[in-house]
Amino acid sequence: MDAEGNNQGHVGAGKFNTTTGHAKQRTFDTLLQAMTTINPKTGKPYELQIEGATNNLMVLKEEMANVMQDKTFLEAGRKMDYAPGQKLFSPAMLPGYVPVMHPNFKDWFYQGNITAANEDLAVMKNSGGVITPDVLKDTYAKHGVVVTPEGDVIQRLPMYAPKPIADMLNKVLGISKLKGIPIIDQITKFNAAVKSTILLTSLYHHQAFMREYMFSRGTGWNPLNVRSAYKEGLQSIQAMTPEIERLVRNGMTLGDNLEYKESLFDADSTLIDKTLDKFHFPQKWKDWLKTLKRDQEQFLFEKFGAGLKAKLGIMEYKRAIQEHPELPPDEVAGMVGRLMNDKFGGLNLQRMHRNPTMQHFFRLLALAPDWTESNIRLMFGALGRGTQAETDLYRHMWTGVIAKGLSGVIASNLILSMFDDKDAKERLQEAWKEGKLRWLDTDITPIYRAFGGSDMDVRKHFQLLGHYRDPIKAALTPTTFIQHKGSALFKMVFEALEGMDWKGQPFTTASELTGMDDKGVYMRTANGHKAGEPKGGELAGEFTKRGTPSGAITYEQIPSFAGEQIRGAIPIPLQELWAMSNGEREIFDGILKGAGVMESSTYPTAEKLERRYTEDYLQAMDDRDYVTMANIKAKVADYNRRHSAADEDEINLDKAIAKRQREEAAKQQYQQSTKYGG
User: Fold this and answer.
1) Given 3-state DSSP classes, what are the helix, strand and coil percentages for the chain, each rounded to the nearest 5?
2) Across-strand partners of 157?
3) What DSSP string runs through 540-599?
4) In this predicted structure, which of 68-77, 242-251, 519-528 has the lowest mean pLDDT?
5) Are 610 and 656 in contact (CB under 8 A)?
6) For a FRET experiment, which of 11, 107, 417, 498 has its CA 20 to 30 Å from that of 348?
7) What tens digit of pLDDT does each residue of 186-200 get?
8) CA–CA separation, 501 and 494 (whole Å)
């Protein structure tokens, strides 16, 4: 980092560079001098932007490679013919040409020699007045003019290109027009900081990468294969095998982490750092947390995800070459590269000609814009977005997901049904009637019960298919889908307007939060409660409660809403520990969710169960299935016995059946009367 606090020599510092920041003159002579000098922007000593010799060497190599590619691109455009007598890139504004606006899209051109015989070049003006050979010799002027010791004048001039090409380059190489607006910069930094903080130590992305690999063709079922697969992929990257070289050259990204770009926010701006500073946390613990965060992200994106992506990319490329021998290898590599980017994230936005302002706007709204867009593109790829060959490639991928994913769901449910009080058919029927795509999940209730789960009405589900359920969720419940995919600020506004958290639960009032709510007394002595004891106070310390939200938050709900937002901005394991400590989360749920496992719970109400049992009982009556009728009666009796002891709602099955029968009779009578004109 330079003396002005600006990024220097960082990979993410620019989209197009023909020089490297590492070539700049040192601002500080030694590392010790930098670490003992106060940065006026932060009020703290300067720190290494990239720590570790190995990491710094990797960044240097990557930056040098990018600079070499950018220079090659510029030189090739200067030599390439666009029209007779016209090059693709020109320092002159030819007819139909417009400027390429990127500040680095310039090149050096010989302008002549300063001699006594060439007086027009001997007098050149800039903001400093007259420029003479003595002033400019061996110097770099503000206007990009250099005079060599021999008197040769070289000037760095902007480049022009035909309007369609220049417009494309300006879109790809430009910066967001929202950047530099103070409030937008703060929101961008806030969203990035919260995302980086809450996903600290979470295993969500690890599972997603494993799912992407295992649910593909030819990768097998054994989870242990994943470890050897990512290592083989890393070896291919390090060796730069012909397949990897061709895939990368045609657009596949490796280790490109669009969700955690360090350049989006300074290292000291994370919520963890700011919070720990306020509590005067020891520096060694802060350093440990920062190291943990950096090591986790480097392993996740630069090793684990990159290795699996490379391994699967090579497999798909070899298979596609065999399936489409009529296509050029580069075209096949481009198709596979796009598929891999859509599966593992790391979209190549420049090759997609993405408008940086639109991408910035998307980043303000979405928590994980790259991952969310990747999932959407994965879905539309199978609907015919590209060529027929590319469409087939995406459809084969989805065939593998459906075949292997659904097989896994069916097999795991069949195995667990052997340890449940419900058979496989009953489990599937309940999951279907519950909705929320529970039928696509694995019912792990027997595991919950084996670990001490005592609530006999609750069902636990594991989302084996994970994010592959997103296309269906987006179609069936678009509002909920948008809420779950929203950025930190978007979710905050959304939850305030809807009056509910991400689980769909309303916020508690101030009296409920403090335990001072008055809800009457218990009428019976049972289940740990005595007759006459107050019902209030049971939600003390809890920010949400079960129930149906009634709209935007009220003034009484503001404390709980604020507390939930604060809790939602800390690492997920700490969120779950907090929820477990005050009774909002069962230990079983807290441990799984804290690790990033996609687990959910179903808490059926008496009203919902009554409706379900009534439908099942009437169907059993029509089928004369007396065994099923007896089983339903037994389940209702068991439910009422447990819930009457706690003075909670019960199921009145006989009354519900009689009501439904009357409704059906009235409906049939009406249909008969209209049929015969009555």
Assistant:
1) 55, 10, 35
2) 107
3) TT-SB-SS---SSPPGGGHHHHHHHHHHTTS-HHHHHHHHHHTTSS-HHHHHHHHTT--E
4) 519-528
5) yes
6) 107
7) 888 888 777 777 766
8) 9
Average pLDDT over the chain, rounded to an integer = 77
* The pLDDT of residue 368 is above 50: yes
Taking 60 as the threshold, does the pLDDT of residue 126 lie above it? no
Determine contact, residues 602/572, Cβ cutoff 8 Å.
no
DSSP at 38: B
At 309 the pLDDT is: 92
Is the pLDDT at 9 greater than 70? The verdict is: no
pTM value is 0.72
Residue 576 · residue 594 · CB < 8 Å: yes
Residue 505 is given by DSSP the state: P
DSSP state of 602: E
For residue 672, give Cα distances in angstroms to 14, 622, 662, 663. Answer: 76, 21, 15, 14
Place of tokens 């990319």: 313
Least confident of 28-32, 120-124, 562-566: 120-124
Match 């969120």 to its residue by tokens. Answer: 575
- Rounded Cα distance, 335 and 381, in Å: 10
Nearest to 143 by CA among 152, 135, 155: 155
Tell me: pLDDT of 414 over 90: yes
Residue 22: C-alpha distances to residues 33, 267, 377 (Å): 18, 20, 37
Contacts made by residues 36-42, CB under 8 angstroms, sequence distance 24+: 39/5, 40/5, 41/5, 42/5, 42/266, 42/268
DSSP characters over 343-357: HH----TTTTT--HH
Beta bridge partners of 153: 112, 147
- pLDDT of 119 reads 45
Range of weakest confidence among 52-56, 274-278, 340-344? 52-56
Using CA atoms, how far apart are residues 448 and 452, in angstroms rounded to an integer?
Answer: 7
pLDDT band at residue 117 under the 50/70/90 scheme: very low
165's tokens:
């090409």
Task: Assign 43 to helix, strand or coil.
Answer: coil
Distance CA 656, CA 640 (A): 15
100-117 burial, b if ≥16 CB within 10 A, otherwise e? bebeebbbeeebebbeee
Specify the DSSP class assigned to residue 23: G
Contact 216, 397 (CB under 8 A): yes
Kindly tell me the burial class for residue 326, based on how many C-beta atoms sit within 10 Å of its own C-beta (0-12, 13-18, 19 or more).
Answer: exposed
User: How many angstroms separate the CA atoms of 20 and 63, rounded?
Assistant: 7
- Say if residues 161 and 89 touch (Cβ distance below 8 Å): yes
Collapsing DSSP to helix, strand or coil, 415 comes out as helix
**Predicted confidence (pLDDT) per residue in 148-186, tens digit:** 767 777 777 888 888 888 888 887 777 788 888 888 888
CB within 8 A of 352, min separation 6: which ones? none
